[in-house]
Amino acid sequence: xxxxxxxxxxxxxxxxxxxxxxxxxxxxxxxxxxxxxxxxxxxxxxxxxxxxxxxxxxxxxxxxxxxxxxxxxxxxxxxxxxxxxxxxxxxxxxxxxxxxxxxxxxxxxxxxxxxxxxxxxxxxxxxxxxxxxxxxxxxxxxxxxxxxxxxxxxxxxxxxxxxx
Length: 164
Hints:
By secondary structure, this protein is an all-alpha fold. It has two helices and no strands.
C-alpha cells in the first residue's frame, strides 16, 4: 500500500491559493467578520445586562405586587369589617324600630281594650239603670194602686229630701 504523496507543484499552488485567500479575507472579510463578532458580543452583553436589569425589575415588581396584594387584602378586610358593622347597625336599628312598633301596637291595643271595657261598663250601667227604673216603676205602680200608700210614700220622700 502506497501512501499518497503530493507533489511539490500541488503544495506550491495550494499554498499560493491559501495565501491569496488569507490576503483577500484579511483585506475584505476579516474586518467585517470581526466587527460583526464584536457587535454580536456587545449585543449579547447588552442582552445579558438587560436580562439582569429585567430580573431586578421583576424582583421589585414582585415585591411591589406582594405589597399591593397585601394592601388590597387589608383594604378588602377593612371594607368587610365596615360592611359587617353597617349590617349589624341596620339590623339593630330595624330590631329597635320593630320593638318600638310592637310596643306602640300593644299600647294602642291596651288603650282600645280599655275604651271598649269602659264603653261596655257604661253600657251595662245604662242597661242596669233602665232595668232599675223599670223595676222601680213597676213596684211604685203596684204600691200606688192602694190609696193610703201613695200619700205615705210622698211624705217619706219629702222627709228624705229635707234631711239631705
